[in-house]
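Worked example 2:
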Amino acid sequence: MIVLALDTALAATSAAVLKDGEALAAQSEPMERGHSERVGGLVRGVMAQSGVGFGDLDRVGVTVGPGSFTGLRVGLAFAKGLAVALNIPCVGVGALEALALSHGGGGRICAAIDARRGQVYFQAFEDGASLDAPAILPIEAANQRLEGLPTLVGSGAALLTAPEGAVIDLRPYADPVAVARLAERVEDPTRPAPLYLRAPDAKTIAERAAG
């Protein structure tokens, strides 16, 4: 199976091509904004580097969140459009799961993303399997869930009170190869939808008037 995976959910635009579990090419460009301007060129570059043609792809994978509202929409729109054009499945990957896999190794891992406003997006894993659903939590509530989690990964780890001796990995975005590996594993390639754990700040005129 040949998979193209992309990630615009966090602080980078990233893409990778995986063939039967082997990474053929991967690129990440750190950025807080401008994902929409960069994603097309970066994907073309990764595909050229991999030596694989777009017609050879079997599926497209994309992170669905949690993360930036704008970034999520950029990645999902691009991935879905490409999959439709190529008539192949598009599959979604959780950003927290991708962060945990990016760290590597087994055992228990907490993936946490800074959600601003004194909150973090939070999910715990053991040997790659999720122990709970993704959640948005106040920092104190997240701290109460850290017992027995010796590894913390993601931008939100800096906000938490880590257990003594914990391994801290402050990577601000996932390894695109990890995103591709997760996309390759998806058994039911249903159309992906964004994972929003908090309502968007932007509101329509009617919503502002009603509020």
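Confidence is low (pLDDT under 50) at residues 202-208. The radius of gyration is 17 Å.
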